[in-house]
Amino acid sequence: MDVPNFDGPYANEFSEFYSNTSSDFAREVLHDGEISDAEYADMEKMFGDCLQDGGIEFSGFAPDGSYETSAAPNPDDTRGIVTGCEAKIGSDVIGALHDIIRVNPENIDAGQAATECLVERGVVADGYDVSDYERDLEGRFADAGSLPLELRGAFLECASNPFG
């Protein structure tokens, strides 16, 4: 199988996902190194149709990429049907890449983003860097409850959602 030469901030991820998926549809979507809204909508519809063929109801993906389904007519079959549809359609591959690109289009390291967030909030000094942040994760941030209120709020927000 020939893997396209991807470029851009997610080139490695596109290459890896393209190589590892068994879905022809996912490869078709990934081939150009982008996932359009139309391609994502097609994937969502195809995934829903596949689940419906297995007797499972699907109401679509939430903005964070999560989803819920009903049980299959034989509840013991539910996980297998869902997993089979994910592999057939490539919804796991397309969905994962789509969601991380939407949240972090430049593929900035999460630790770097959290560090910048803390600096922007003014709760750490200018010049605070990723190595400081990593050290603080093991040190003063390890017990967030003991942090001063302003620092605790900023730390929890920047660590959980560093990209805003």
What would you say about this model in short?
The protein has 164 residues and is mostly helical. The chain has helices at residues 11-20, 24-30, 37-53, 78-89, 91-103, 110-120, 130-138, 149-160.
Low-confidence regions? none
**How would you characterize the largest beta sheet?**
none
Q: What is the H/E string?
A: HHHHHHHH
In total, the number of strands is: 0
Question: Would you tell me the structural class of the helices and strands?
Answer: mainly alpha
Q: How many separate domains make up the residues?
A: 2
Mean pLDDT across every amino acid position? 94
The Cα radius of gyration reads 20 Å
Percentage of residues in strands: under 5%
Task: Give the number of helices.
Answer: 8
Q: Cα distance, first to last residue?
A: 38 Å
Q: Helical residue percent?
A: 55-70%
Overall, the morphology is globular
Descriptive notes:
The radius of gyration is 20 Å and the shape is globular. By secondary structure, it is mainly alpha-helical. The two termini are 38 Å apart. The mean pLDDT is 94. The protein has helices at residues 11-20, 24-30, 37-53, 78-89, 91-103, 110-120, 130-138, 149-160.
Notable characteristics:
single chain, 2 domains, 164 residues, 55% helix, 8 helices, mainly alpha, 0% strand
